[in-house]
Amino acid sequence: MLGLGVAASGLSTSSAQDLQAAVSSPTVVTTVTPDVKQPSAFQRDASTISRSSFRAALTTPSEADGLAPSTLAQAAEVAAEPGEVDPQAAKARTALLKAENAAADKRSEKLEKKRAAAKKKAEAAKRALGKSTMPVKHYSIAARFGDVGAWARYHTGFDFSAPVGTTIYAPTAGVVEHAGSGGEAGGWAGNYVVLKHADGTQTLYAHMSSISVKAGERVTGSTKLGHVGMTGRSFGPHLHFEVYPAGTTPGDVYKATNPQPWLNKLGLKP
Predict the structure, then answer these.
(1) pLDDT for the residue numbered 128
(2) Is 93 part of any domain?
(3) Is the pLDDT of residue 59 over 50?
(4) Residue 6 falls inside a structural domain
């Protein structure tokens, strides 16, 4: 019994050693390409692997090149100390900020002045125009632009019917180009006034019983021009009102345009 146990033990030991030898000594098959030198499977060239002296230089910076952790820590501590701030640099920065603030204040003040000037100019222009007003305040429309009747084959303006002596007003600012009879429209308009406005448009007021302005006079909106009448060719007391585009001659009736859009721009709706 003892002999068999020893034999079995010896067999087991021998088998284990053979198995270990087989695992730890693998067969290496090497294919050699012609004319190419192949390194030994166990040869290590320190210059061709990452764990070289170059990598060591990165992981252990030299004190001489200023990259050492201790050097960086010391620099951070010095920068953090208030007493180390350059007084001249601080003074220069304060002066720069002061100058920038002064320049910003100056720009703001200049812009505010420009806004105030623009507002003042707009208000002056508005005052110069005056209040927009219908040519006659109490009226009825007897005829509109383009109407046909016994008085015309093609009506060239608006007829504001009103009693003789009713005040006629300038709808908006302008310069008196004509005031009286005669001229281009004298044959039919009787006593009439022509105003020239800022955009070159001219307006004509015909059949007036009296005129209150003179040629060359500047008027604003709501200025009294005269009174309703029936001078010239008129079939009753009314104001015949016409609008002429820039570049046309007032009195050349077939150059007149519809007064409605022009009045509407002034906020007036007859």
Answers:
(1) 66
(2) no
(3) no
(4) no
230-256: buried (b, 16+ CB within 10 Å) or exposed (e) per residue? eebebeebbbbbbbbeeebebbebeeb
* Token pair listed for 140: 């009825």
Which residue carries 């044959």 as its tokens?
187
Tokens representing residue 244 in the block: 């002429």
Question: pLDDT for 160-214, tens place per residue?
Answer: 999 999 999 999 999 999 999 999 998 899 999 999 999 999 999 999 999 999 9
Domain at 212, CATH number: 2.70.70.10
Q: Would you say residue 134 lies in a domain? A: no
- Condensed to tens digits (0 to 9), the pLDDT of residues 2-14 reads 344 434 444 444 4
Q: Following DSSP, what letter does each residue of 162-206 receive, concatenated?
A: --TT-EEE-SS-EEEEEEES-STTHHHH-SEEEEE-TTS-EEEEE
Say if CB 93 and CB 100 are below 8 A apart: no
